[in-house]
Amino acid sequence: MRPVFHRPEALTAVKTHYCPGCTHGIIHRLIAEVIDELGVREETIGVSPVGCSVLAYSYFNLDMQQAAHGRAPAVATGIKRVHPQKVVFTYQGDGDLAAIGTAEIVHAAARSEKITTIFVNNAIYGMTGGQMAPTTLLRQKSMTSPKGREAAPQGYPIRVSEMLATLDGAAYIARVSVHNPQEVSKAKKAIKTAFEYQMAGIGFALVEVLSTCPTNWGCTPTESLKWLVENMLPVYPLGVKKMQREVSI
After folding, report:
1. What is the DSSP string of 130-145?
2. Which residue, of 121, 133, 160, 223, has the fewest CB within 10 Å?
3. Tell me: the pLDDT tens digits for 58-75?
4. Rg (CA), the chain
5. Taking a C-beta distance cutoff of 8 angstroms, is the pair 246, 160 a contact?
6. Residue 5 forms beta bridges with which residues?
7. In angstroms, rounded to a whole number, what is the distance separating the alpha carbons of residues 193 and 205?
8. Is residue 107 packed enough to be buried (19+ CB in 10 Å), middle (13-18) or exposed (0-12)?
9. Under DSSP, is residue 240 helix (H, G, I), strand (E, B) or coil?
């Protein structure tokens, strides 16, 4: 019997620690499938963040480097410049990338570093207990905004993809989601394009992936998918935000 579905070679055969309903696992698989399809597993180096996906180095079956909180783009920059022939990517959450790591991601994009970033946005701090993040929506409740986020004094949510797309050095910027099979398919295509941009030597590429956090949103996995559609999509519209040119490897 011929198998039609199997574990990608770029994923290890271990159980993840993610909460039920969290979509980090889906995103991991998409990245692994893309790496396998491009045939670059032996040439790929990933950089793990601090946050819910801090153990990503245990889940990807390839060379991984752990970075300090928010510093993954800086670490990836160093790796890529020393090993320009390698495929280098960072995997970061919204707290890691959009808060403590804002400077790193902005300047990596501005310099057009030839790295790929996968940015997981679930609109909240996950690992540390559900505090308000830079991406938390207005009126969204969290541990540090129990009455809901207010524009004054807490500010507005940051649209990272739109912000980075204004930089000349950003080559490919897209926002996707994984809340249903159709969007999962689109997300994989965007992730593959981001890796192809790097392999073609074009410049910095980032894919923002809207994700769920049932635990800290205080809902069931099924409810979290509905919450994402009804609340996150209007604030974080999907689509390609910047694309310098078509590319194929």
Report:
1. S---TTPPBT--BTTB
2. 223
3. 999 999 999 999 999 999
4. 17
5. no
6. none
7. 9
8. middle
9. strand
